[in-house]
Amino acid sequence: MTGIKLNFSPKIIFSWWPFFSKCLLIIACLFITGIQPAFAGLNTDTYDGNIFVVYAGNGSLVPPAQTLAQTLAQHKPAVLAFYVEDSSDCKQYALIVSRIQEFYGRAAEIIPVSVDSILPKETYDTTEPGYYYSGAVPQVVLFNQSGNVVLNKNGQVPYEEIDDKLREVFDLLPRDKSVLLKRRSFNELNSEITE
User: Rounded to an integer, what distance in angstroms lies between the CA atom of residue 50 and that of residue 59?
Assistant: First the structure.
């Protein structure tokens, strides 16, 4: 019985490994050169993400825990901080807002408001952030326990100025008469317990 005999020569068989590795190398080179690196610039007017997370390292500010209406109904002091994500001034001011929360976050409600989220209306209620927005960012509005505005300023308001107003709201000593509180280190606390 005679059959068909197929002869395969080693020269005819195509070697896939060198071809595959070259294709993989070309794709990797195109991928590496085609991707732009992520640049987050504090002094640029570009969108880099949530400014409180990226620049202040504080993701707990956004979204706020309460609305302005809820805070005023509880007779709790509030700080409205108007901002936009793509403003270098607001990016720099995120550190100040985070610092306000560090010292007053338990006693006052810190409410960052992205002005892009304010819906345009003819009139706003006094419990809506749009009522207090002046059209410039950054802007800070401070309310006392009665819901009265005690500070409303545009621009990069220094922390000390906001702190002075908050000290008046909470009936605290002025900064020049108060003692600077220093946190104890963990080791100091342990040594006092063991003694």
Answer: 8
State the Rg of the chain over Cα.
30
Beta carbons of 115 and 133 less than 8 angstroms apart: yes
- The architecture that CATH gives domain 51-169 is 3-Layer(aba) Sandwich (3.40)
Rounded to whole angstroms, how far apart are CA atoms 68 and 76?
A: 10
Q: How far apart are CA 142 and CA 146, in angstroms?
A: 11
Domain boundaries, the chain: 51-169
Residue 12 pLDDT class (50, 70, 90 cuts): very low
- For 150, which DSSP code? E
For the stretch 67-123, pLDDT in tens is: 999 999 999 999 999 999 988 999 999 999 999 999 999 999 999 999 999 999 999
Q: Can the peptide bond before residue 129 be classed as cis, meaning omega within 30 degrees of 0?
A: no
145-166 b/e (C-beta count within 10 Å ≥ 16 → b): eebeeebebeeebeeeebbebb
By C-alpha distance, which of 18, 12, 83, 14 is closest to 53?
A: 83
The amino acid sitting at 3 is G
Paired with 141 in beta bridges are 80, 152
How many of the other CB atoms lie within 10 Å of CB of 66? 16
Q: Which residue has the tokens 């309310």?
A: 143
Helices 88-104, 159-169: crossing angle, 10 deg rounding = 30
